[in-house]
User: Which sequence fits this backbone?
């Protein structure tokens, strides 16, 4: 007994601790593995319920969105993460189910938006992107249209931050998509055009520091927009709209000659009267900014030849005439504008940043019809 006790006491403290530490580590590993297995089982169960909701949504079950919104968001997110993975009993998912799931979350997001619940809106829109990102290449075209339609819808409602966040997440999950890059550029360009919530006065900003900060902020938005548009053009050179937007931004960045060169290259490529109108209108603006007034006037007139109801071109030409001392000509241009019946014609400039609300809402409904077929 004494010899055994002596041998035990002669062991170092570290040697005595090792068995206990190993036993504790084994217990921790077993516990964590067990919890992980339980969590995975729960996620698979949630995935099955989520799948069932998609089936019911395709059947126009009115109670699906309410059930979806009442669900624990973390569990729902974990369930979507399993789609087309090794634990997914439904893999591989058919494309129409992924599209339908995205539209189901879209409807939930728009309900949240109407209730001013920004966090809920963003959550369901991100799940929509994640579901579309799970699909094969045949989902890609639908995904681009979906992102474009939803981000434009948000923009028409003035929800520019929500649109920006959606596009950022879409660029991460659906990289290299020309339509998403195009809409990213347009939203940035739109934000650059927004007036500041409060314009500093000479009393509150005597040194012009705040004004200069706002100017630099606008220029950053424009530069970011130009970058996204250029990437979109590299992927899809036939996107005339992206080229028109990029050229206009070059003028606003002070690169008028670059803008004029790009617009000149577009004149022979555009076929729609509205596009031809915008090319001439923006060419006029670029000429005017660098003091080439005769060329500017010619381009304003060219714009009106392409689209005689274009109020922006009339007003631009009238203002230019007034500025150059041609008051009678300015009055004549305005009289011509008043004589035009523009009730049934929308100036392309009016829908330059985004399509009319009814058109965008109709596109979302069309996507839903396509998804659930």
Assistant:
């Amino acid at each position: 007994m004494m010899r055994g006790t002596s041998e035990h006491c002669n062991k170092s403290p570290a040697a005595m601790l090792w068995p206990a530490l190993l036993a504790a580590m084994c217990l921790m590993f077993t516990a964590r593995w067990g919890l992980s297995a339980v969590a995975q089982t729960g996620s698979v169960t949630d995935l099955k319920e989520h799948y069932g909701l998609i089936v019911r949504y395709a059947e126009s079950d009115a109670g699906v969105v309410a059930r979806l919104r009442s669900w624990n968001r973390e569990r729902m997110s974990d369930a979507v993460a399993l789609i087309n993975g090794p634990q997914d009993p439904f893999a591989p998912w058919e494309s129409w189910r992924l599209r339908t799931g995205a539209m189901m979350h879209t409807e939930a997001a728009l309900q949240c938006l109407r209730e001013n619940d920004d966090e809920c809106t963003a959550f369901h829109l991100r799940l929509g992107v994640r579901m579309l990102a799970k699909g094969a290449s045949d989902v890609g075209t639908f995904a681009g249209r979906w992102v474009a339609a939803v981000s434009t819808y948000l923009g028409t409602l003035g929800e520019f931050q929500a649109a920006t966040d959606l596009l950022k997440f879409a660029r991460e999950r659906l990289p290299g998509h020309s339509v998403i890059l195009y809409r990213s550029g347009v939203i940035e360009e739109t934000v650059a055009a927004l007036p500041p919530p409060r314009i500093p006065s000479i009393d509150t900003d005597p040194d012009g520091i705040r004004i200069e900060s706002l100017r630099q902020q606008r220029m950053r938005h424009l530069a970011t927009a130009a970058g996204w548009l250029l990437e979109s053009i590299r992927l899809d050179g036939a996107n005339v709209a992206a080229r028109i937007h990029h050229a206009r931004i070059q003028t606003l960045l002070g690169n008028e000659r670059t803008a004029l060169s790009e617009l000149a290259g577009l004149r022979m490529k555009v076929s729609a009267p509205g596009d031809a109108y915008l090319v001439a209108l923006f060419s006029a603006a670029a000429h005017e900014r660098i003091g080439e007034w005769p060329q500017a006037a010619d381009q304003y007139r060219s714009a009106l030849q392409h689209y005689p109801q274009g109020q922006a071109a009339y007003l631009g030409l009238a203002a230019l005439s007034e500025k150059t001392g041609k008051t009678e000509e300015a009055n004549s241009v305005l009289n011509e504008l008043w004589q035009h019946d523009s009730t049934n014609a929308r100036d392309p400039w009016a829908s330059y940043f985004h399509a009319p609300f009814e058109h965008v809402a109709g596109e979302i409904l069309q996507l839903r019809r396509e998804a659930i077929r």
User: Anything to note?
Assistant: The longest helix spans residues 13-58. Residues 138-195+207-236+355-373 form one domain.
